[in-house]
Amino acid sequence: MPDSVASVGKYADDHYCLVPTDEGKYEVFWYERGGKYDFCVYDSESAGCFGFLGLIGGGLSGIQPVLRGQGVRNALGGASIAQPSVRSLIDGDEGTVFGGLSEQEWIERFVVPEDHGLPIGQRRLIWPDGRQHPDGFASPTDRAPARLEPGRLMDSFGPTFTRLLYDLGTPFGTRSLPLDYAQSGYRRWRVLKPTAVWVGPTAPWFGRPGGGKQYFTLMPAADLVGAGFIEEMDK
Length: 235
Fold this sequence. Notes:
Elements: E1 6-8, E2 15-20, E3 26-32, E4 35-42, H1 45-60, H2 84-91, H3 103-110, E5 144-148, E6 153-157, E7 164-167, H4 179-182, E8 186-191, E9 195-201, E10 213-217, H5 221-226, E11 230-232
Parallel strand pairs: 1-2
Antiparallel strand pairs: 2-3, 3-4, 5-9, 6-7, 6-8, 7-10, 8-11, 9-10
Pfam families: TNT
Domain TNT: 148-232
Protein name: TNT domain-containing protein
């Protein structure tokens, strides 16, 4: 089981997590932007492990080489920050990636204290309060149900298990994403069938202005590909 996918014993951004509780139970979930998804609670360690492996098994099917439009190849890859398609989103962004803060100030404010010394990709981040900014939206009332129509072009950062899509070319700063995400793999998608989403502006966070339009899907991108709703485009 790759460490880049699973985390046992603690929360990790963009990972499937198995975490024991103080009550002796075991929580299993996908953790993204401070939120728990596909959340289940088990009464025993063995049951939690079985549930954990079952949840991961569905997501990892996207790693296997398959035909375009029928799954996701290289689910943990994506274009690197060195690619022109990624650089254009960052270079065209006003201000620095730390939002006017020094790197150390940014770390102290937005990285979990125990992880201050860890490198990008391993440190845990402090996300907006989920009650004020559910799923990273500006507010609970600033999101609305919508539908992506066939032919629409979208993009995303991070693994293919993400539920967050953006209009192709949305400036990085308006997404309110940390620098960690700019280095986590960039992908482009084409909508094939009408796809239900929640849509609204992002909350300002990580020293960035926010305000960009984000689309929160009802299932991970990998599952949308497998079901024929979207397909990954060439980088």
